[in-house]
């Protein structure tokens, strides 16, 4: 193992031994779905939103809403975030993960947001071969919280507001399509309620059929904006098949979260996705999660409602309880009427 990596193999091996799994028993339903060859997600040029031609603006808006309904995932280009800023963010991210494991778990950066593997896993198919820094954006302005990582702080202080602007723009378009006021999302989600997650998926000596880079899941927020490298590995569920997503160096990936699915009364789809492990090379990505405050009430936009009213805090608490008890998230089905 590379010195800077967490002891993932040790934890994974202990899970297999302690649960008494056989090789056959490790087969996981999510992995048994067929995988379709890599495909291109819907690609939307956000430059169309600034067009002088009203028809082009409407066409761009319609494409965003259609992709949210039919795929739950899409890609955007001409999003307004410069290539230089994206590269700066990636360089700082790589430097952070190259720090030795012992230092990552003790450095105290931002009140210890470092995570690796899956501490709650009770079986190998609940385990993610990855490490991450989950960063509350309320803390990025606190210089004392960054220690020696001041250049990372500078990058995030540029990157996070840019991602907030893109996510709010897209979420506002999707909200207006449902009949909500133009400023509805802006009132619910601000920089203080959102999160940034820096992900690293180290090389995995096991085959991708045995270990997930990130286990199948849906996101719990309104909207997620993902900046990934060119390694690939992201797959999403489409028509009961896993679809491998081709990396596009010029695009950001957008996906609908559970809150938007509930808020839209299932008009938009929060789609299950995963990351497959890679035997040859590591993978990096940065995810921006557009979230409301925990006391925000999620109520369907029109009747008959599919879900009962719930707060974001209540939803997050239920997810945590499910993970503790059964090892994975159940999600919105718990809140269906």
UniProtKB/TrEMBL annotation:
GO biological process, one term: gibberellin metabolic process
Keyword Iron: yes
Pfam families: 2OG-FeII_Oxy (PF03171), DIOX_N (PF14226)
Keyword Oxidoreductase applies: yes
Single GO MF annotation: metal ion binding
InterPro entries registered for this protein in UniProt: DIOX_N (IPR026992), IPNS-like_FE2OG_OXY (IPR044861), IPNS-like_sf (IPR027443), Iron_ascorbate_oxido_reductase (IPR050231), Oxoglu/Fe-dep_dioxygenase_dom (IPR005123)
Segments forming a coiled coil: none
UniProt keyword annotations, A-Z: Dioxygenase, Iron, Metal-binding, Oxidoreductase
Enzyme class: oxidoreductase
Domain Fe2OG dioxygenase: 190-292
Gene3D superfamilies: B-lactam Antibiotic, Isopenicillin N Synthase, Chain
Swiss-Prot/TrEMBL catalytic activity: gibberellin A1 + 2-oxoglutarate + O2 = gibberellin A8 + succinate + CO2
EC number: 1.14.11.13
Family that this chain belongs to: Belongs to the iron/ascorbate-dependent oxidoreductase family. GA2OX subfamily.
PANTHER family: 2-OXOGLUTARATE (2OG) AND FE(II)-DEPENDENT OXYGENASE SUPERFAMILY PROTEIN-RELATED
Identification of the protein by name: gibberellin 2beta-dioxygenase
Organism: Phaseolus coccineus
């Amino acid at each position: 193992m590379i010195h800077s990596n967490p002891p993932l193999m040790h934890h994974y091996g202990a899970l297999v031994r302690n649960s008494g799994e056989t090789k056959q028993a490790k087969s996981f339903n999510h992995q048994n779905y067929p995988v379709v060859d890599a495909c291109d997600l819907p690609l939307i040029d956000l430059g169309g939103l600034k067009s002088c031609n009203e028809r082009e603006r409407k066409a761009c808006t319609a494409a965003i809403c259609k992709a949210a309904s039919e795929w739950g995932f899409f890609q955007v280009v001409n999003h307004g975030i410069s290539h230089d800023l994206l590269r700066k963010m990636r360089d700082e991210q790589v430097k952070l993960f190259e720090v030795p494991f012992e230092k990552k778990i003790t450095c105290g950066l931002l009140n210890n947001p470092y995570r690796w593997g899956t501490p709650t896993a009770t079986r190998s198919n609940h385990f993610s071969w990855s490490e991450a820094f989950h960063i509350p954006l309320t803390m990025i302005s606190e210089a004392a919280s960054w220690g020696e990582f001041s250049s990372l702080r500078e990058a995030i202080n540029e990157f996070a507001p840019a991602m907030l602007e893109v996510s709010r723009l897209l979420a506002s378009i999707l909200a207006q399509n449902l009949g909500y006021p133009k400023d509805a999302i802006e009132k619910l989600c601000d920089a203080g309620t959102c999160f940034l997650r820096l992900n690293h998926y180290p090389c995995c000596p096991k085959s991708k059929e045995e270990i997930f880079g990130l286990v199948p899941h849906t996101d719990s927020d309104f909207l997620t904006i993902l900046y990934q490298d060119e390694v690939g590995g992201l797959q999403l569920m489409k028509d009961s098949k896993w679809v491998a997503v081709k990396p596009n160096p010029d695009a950001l990936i957008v996906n609908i979260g559970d809150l938007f699915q509930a808020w839209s009364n299932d008009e938009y789809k929060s789609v299950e996705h995963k990351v497959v492990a890679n035997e040859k090379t590591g993978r990096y990505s940065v995810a921006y999660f557009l979230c409301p405050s925990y006391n925000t009430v999620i109520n369907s936009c029109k009747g008959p409602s599919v879900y009962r009213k719930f707060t974001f805090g209540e939803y997050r608490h239920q997810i945590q309880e499910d993970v503790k008890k059964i090892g994975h998230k159940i999600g919105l089905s718990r809140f269906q009427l």
